[in-house]
Amino acid sequence: MEEIQEDQEDPVSLYMSLDNWQDCSYLQETPNESFMVGFVIANIVGLQYYSGTITGRELVGLVREPLNPYDQNALKVLNTRCLQVGHIERSAAAVLSPLIDSNMINVEGIVPNSRSGGNKFKIPCQVHVFARVEGFEIVKTAISRGGLVLFSQMEVGFGLSEAMVVKEKNKKSGLKSLDEIFKLVDENVNKKGKLGALEPPKEVIKSQLFDHQKEGLWWLVNRENSGELPPFWEEKDGKFVNVLTNYHTNRRPEPLRGGIFADDMGLGKTLTLLSLIAFDKCGDGTGVVRGHKDNVAEEIGGDDEDASVSGSKKCRRGRVSKKVIGGRKKCRVEDTLSDGNVKGKSVLIANKSSGVPCAKTTLIVCPPAVFSTWITQLEEHTQRGSLRVYMYYGERTREVEELKKHDIVLTTYSTLAAEDPWEDAPVKKIDWYRVILDEAHVIKNANSQQSRAVTNLNAKRRWVVTGTPIQNGSLDLFSLMAFLRFEPFSIKSYWQSLLQRPLAQGNKKGLARLQVLMATISLRRTKDKGVVGLPSKTVETHYIELSGEERELYDQMEAEAKGVVQNFINTDNLMRNFSTVLCIILRLRQICNDLALCPSDLRSLLPSNSIEGILTFNTAE
Question: Where are the transmembrane segments (predicted)?
Fold first, then answer.
């Protein structure tokens, strides 16, 4: 077991905005982090029923499958391409799965040797078991009672383990350590040098981009049109090898056409993305603008009521109000978004009779509050009629061909989550040219319905857009990797083994790996780096004395609140009353700001033994 470093900084504060990647050298151990108990040997069976293959010594993903109709304890085995290879044999799964479901253990797998000359219907696999230190004995007892042999560090058989998480370097076999692999990838990234600059097509984008936006556009276009092997893949003797998992294949893996666009808030990510989409209309796919306005709809003069909403739906009954911009009438979207029954509609459309499907339709997913931002940016920065946009929100079309007529389809995370169980949902039937997740930190929980819905979308290009890709901790990044389908990090067991566990255990290697990983797929610029010529931010702290009335009420409230919280702690009910604790903090802050913010009868109720009622009273204010 690796020695855990002490007196280390909080990882949440270090990585909240990704600005400290290059300045921090270690992480703090997470109290609930797990360590390796040992490994068991179990067979992977059912190989003949699945397309996934294993070609030699390689890591495999182990995923619980509780809804399997044939075995409720099923543990399916995935290779690095996310293809199923088979299942862990029933006898072993029956012992391990209940422990996994109770959050007692995590498991990872490695196939130690090539299957050449062996049984073609099964492959031996070393299943490595991880648990919290205080649960070691319970786990060992449960596995032993289940009839499995657990090889631990105290036993001679432990030396047979070939797991990269235990023995990351094997000099005799000439294998590179994981950290040597990450270092080589980092060197390749650094060799690419500075960003170039790219002008957007003026046929679509009428605004002038700042220099950092042109560089961002160059980065986006180059990633979308790269023909390079994905990171951590190499070509050897005519075959392609994932150097992290040792997976071999004869088929060249698809380039990673996408990534994380993590510029700081206010640097114009939306305009940069619209410029990227503009090349779909006026470029040759590589950022080179054609000499004529192919596929750009002509503007129409005069009164264009019918042009504002497709399907002959006009702005009427006050649901979509008109405003005159530049001598033309346009539909406002802000009013429609406040209506719970808003109908899906096309906006900024040049010709309502245009029924030709777009060859490159982009799906943009964002929270409802960001809808108006995208529409405003379209109005301000794009030529009138150059892009056809459909709002897939509220009452909306069920026709796939209708969506394909548009350059941009705007929708929300909640809409996709609601449609995810529908087999005939039109968004699930389309092979999108591009999917953009705006405010992508919304899907930081990989188990949420929203996260699963966007990850299951079919797309040629995938973009994650957020100024805060890490909000709570490094595990937030896993859901982004799953959406990007960045193998092998898109499989949770690989993510845990290669990154999450070293980070949480305070291992310096974990931070170095995270830095390399993010450097390969993300672009991050901040305002304090001078990219837009703004002066540095100045923060001044002024201490203000409360008035006599405020101080008296605050002290009374604080004393009562302390008693309530302490009672929750003593009765072990703190988490069940978490909302009450948050209300306590809210009321104390309100007193500090202005007594007018508090409920009017707050003082008359103090002192009392019913502080919970005081705290929750009128919380909608």
Answer: none
